[in-house]
Amino acid sequence: MPIEQRDHAAVITHPLAQQTLTTLRSVETDGATFREGLVRLGRLCGNEIVDHLMETELVEVETPLTTTTGQQVAGMDDVVLINVLRAGTPFVEGLLQTFPKASQGVISASRDEAAGMNDRGEFPIAVEYTKLPEIGPDDTVIVADPMLATGSTLSTVLEWVVDEMPESADLFALSAVSAPEGLARIDEQFPAAELLTVGIDDHLDDDGFIVPGLGDAGDRAFGTTE
């Protein structure tokens, strides 16, 4: 099954997605290849969302010769992508290849590394900028952030998103790699959100980083250092 349900999340097991994740993990992958990998992974994840989580419908179509019946994906024009800056940018670029008519929102949210992780495994989160489109009752909302570690950032982002969306809209939280601790936290705090990831890793280290992980996705994608 290309999407396999685990304890707290659905895992995208498509071979090409897993191969791309392997490339992203490698310390030998350069910045340009890393960015390209995140774009490719976003597109592959988008395709899997369409294949397994969205319905098709029959439509009448007129060809140059006659009228016939075809299929289309229901709701393709009712997708909202939320880019969690900054590592989410190439990830969302790939999703846009699957959902070219999607509305887009951005939220700049980052954890305060200097403050450190508290005894509950949480970081303080700074939200510096938000811009969300109007979300309709029939929309599919996909919040995209390559890394789900403690869940501190995603929890803060989802609070903003849930506050702006109707209860009837579908909500997905998509990551490349996730830690069990973060998945459990988001699942508990946002039960209406469907968690999707390409990899569930072993654990968080004492500094709140995913192990084995893939490093800091933002720094690797944009050529910066901490």
Description:
The chain has one domain (3-56, 70-222): Rossmann fold. Helix 3 (88-98) links the parallel strand 5 and strand 6. By secondary structure, the chain is α/β, with parallel strands linked by helices. It contains 6 helices and 13 strands. The protein has helices at residues 15-25, 31-53, 88-98, 152-164, 180-189, 217-222; strands at 3-5, 10-12, 56-62, 67-73, 79-85, 103-111, 125-131, 140-144, 147-148, 170-178, 194-200, 203-204, 210-211. The termini are far apart. Strands 1, 2, 5, 6, 7, 8, 9, 10 and 11 form a 9-stranded mixed beta sheet that branches. A two-stranded antiparallel ribbon has the order 3-4. The model has no long low-confidence stretch (mean pLDDT 94). Helix 1 (15-25) runs antiparallel to helix 2 and helix 2 (31-53) packs across helix 3 (88-98). 33% of the residues lie in helices and 31% in strands.
